[in-house]
What we know:
The complex is a heterodimer.
Chain A: E1 2-8, E2 11-17, H1 23-30, E3 49-52, E4 55-58, E5 71-73, H2 87-94, H3 104-117, H4 123-129, H5 140-150
Parallel strand pairs in A: 1-5
Antiparallel strand pairs in A: 1-2, 3-4, 3-5
Helix pairs in contact in A: 2-5
Chain B: E1 5-7, H1 12-18, E2 24-27, H2 33-38, E3 46-49, E4 59-62, E5 65-69, H3 74-80, H4 85-91, H5 97-100, H6 105-111, H7 118-125, E6 128-131, E7 135-137, H8 138-141, E8 156-162, E9 166-173, E10 180-189, E11 192-198, E12 206-207, H9 209-217, H10 242-259
Parallel strand pairs in B: 1-3, 2-3
Antiparallel strand pairs in B: 4-5, 5-8, 6-7, 6-8, 9-10, 10-11, 11-12
Amino acid sequence: MTKVTMTVNGATVSGEVEGRTLLSSFLREGLALTGTHVGCDTSQCGACVVHVDGKAVKSCTAFAVDLDGASVTTIEGMANADGSLGVVQQAFQDHHGLQCGFCTPGMVMSAAALLAENSKPTEAEVRHYLEGNICRCTGYHNIIKAVLAASGQDVSGIAAE
Amino acid sequence: MHNFEFVKPSSIADAVAALRQEDAQALSGGQTLMPTMKQRLAAPSVLVSLTGIAEMKGIRASGGVVEIGAATTHAEVAAGAGAYPALTALAGNIGDPAVRNRGTIGGSLANNDPAADYPAAALASGATIVTNAREIAADDFFQGLFTTALEEGEIITAVRFPVPERAAYAKFQQPASRFALTGAFVAKTSAGVRVAITGAGEDGVFRWTDAEAALSGNFSAAVLNGLAAPEDGLIGDLHGTPAYRANLVKVMTQRAVAAA
């Protein structure tokens, strides 16, 4: 076992991990942050996306021990300080950007990473950026709408199909 | 996945020493190796992370050559290798954003997946693969499915791309995996034209020499109209027959020429 220390959602945390402990396992089982979901566990679906040093990363495809010293943000770190939903989360609620909700943590984290790089993306850019996030309810139209709304763009003309 | 000992050296020399241990394996971004280990198709006893080595990171452009540290991520190449636009475009379309934030150019080349994008860029550009021990021409580097000229424990430290006069990459994506069902990288230099095909060959990336000869005389998509890529040695699987891929070889090459 090896001791790792990270900053997770602003707090310094430490834990003992095996070499093979995935970041997703460390977050969920070590830190009880179960908002990060593991869907496929094969780096295809994107449900487990978190931010590592500000970049979107599939937490099922990174070793915790390799990220010693990193700064990690999970879905639990996306709400405002007063506990209200963050901008991207609120947009998903307002525009019905989720059905079963399983993919939502990864969708929100990927969307937030996109908006950090590109504050006013086009619909095509949103779709391209979310290629690695799969919604098996197939609720993509409202997810795209929510991300565009979170960027402050008018989405009144975008119909849910 | 089976457990292993994890080491993260901060210099190439320390990494080379760590890789001398029995059943040691280099780990870069892990975007291929980790899924492989989960399936227990790989079970190294020691994993040597190469991502903590500063001298293996970064992009340097000078004298018509772009040199990229092997541990540079696809996202960093997409953002920072502007001196070679065809390469930045290729890097920006590998996998998805989260994969591009972890996966590295050295890892991709060392793995030599038959459907990976970077091998096509390296072979068409006539790149040089720099290792801890020597320099290897791309023509000598790729030696078959998941097989390269790398010796046991040898590490790619950097890749040098001479920037062509004109170049472009076109790929037909397998829509679920986003790997190239077939991809063509075309590079035109004063010495002629090189065309490298990925995703199609049973032995991995290869040069389409008939197209190179035709394009060296006349660099236009139309010059390939009468040419057919040979089906021999092309992959046949549930995604496409050899004949289907042969057609994609031609169409992707024409698209790359048109975009170059």
